[in-house]
Amino acid sequence: YFEYVAETNKEDAQAWNNYGNALRTLFSYDAALIAYDKALEINPAYMEALNGRGGVLMALCQIDDAMKSYQKVISLAPNHPEAPINLVYAYVANGDFDLAKEMLEDLLAKNPRHADAHHQFSRIHRYQKGDPHLDAMEQALKTPNPSLKETVLIHHALGKAHADLKNHKTAFDHWTKAN
After folding, report:
1. Which of 28, 82, 98, 133 has the fewest Cβ atoms nearer than 10 Å?
2. d(Cα 23, Cα 109) in Å, to the nearest integer?
């Protein structure tokens, strides 16, 4: 259906973006990239197509090009809900841990409950006694009505942090809660 809509509405960027999303879900990355590129030919500033294109490029291990897509989204919409964390994943995949940490710290300063940011930060950070990020994660869990995603990701992050600190029982308690 998405292919039909895109083919019958050749100048509709949203139709091509939706088709790209469907193809990406089906792991048809080369075809998804073509669909996203058609959406971007129609509207070069179409943020969702740029973000989706970045995801496909990540899957194809074209990290530098993925970063460019995410950076363009962020330049158009600094508060885009997905592009900044996607750029962090690209930085990590590229081994740019300092850039990733800097961006994660910025994301967490803007939104202390950003579960993806806590989780990713914990993956690239070595915790030591008194680390302020541990308290930040504990506080994020105490906020009213955390979502299931927030709860799972932050418990996983806390598990990793406590494992670094050799608090194995506490680490396993958090991993158990996450799972």
Report:
1. 98
2. 35
* Gap between the Cα atoms of 72 and 114, Å rounded: 22
Q: Tens of pLDDT along the chain (179 residues)?
A: 999 999 998 999 999 999 999 999 999 999 999 999 999 999 999 999 999 999 999 999 999 999 999 999 999 998 899 999 999 999 999 999 999 999 999 999 999 999 999 999 999 999 999 999 999 999 998 988 889 999 999 999 999 999 999 999 999 999 999 99
Which tokens is 22 given? 């469907």
pTM metric for this prediction: 0.88
Copy the structure tokens of residue 171: 């680490």
Can you tell me the distance from the alpha carbon of 31 to that of 58, in angstroms, rounded to the nearest whole number? 15
Show the tokens assigned to 80: 């885009």
Q: What's the rounded Cα separation, in Å, for the pair 168 and 117?
A: 23
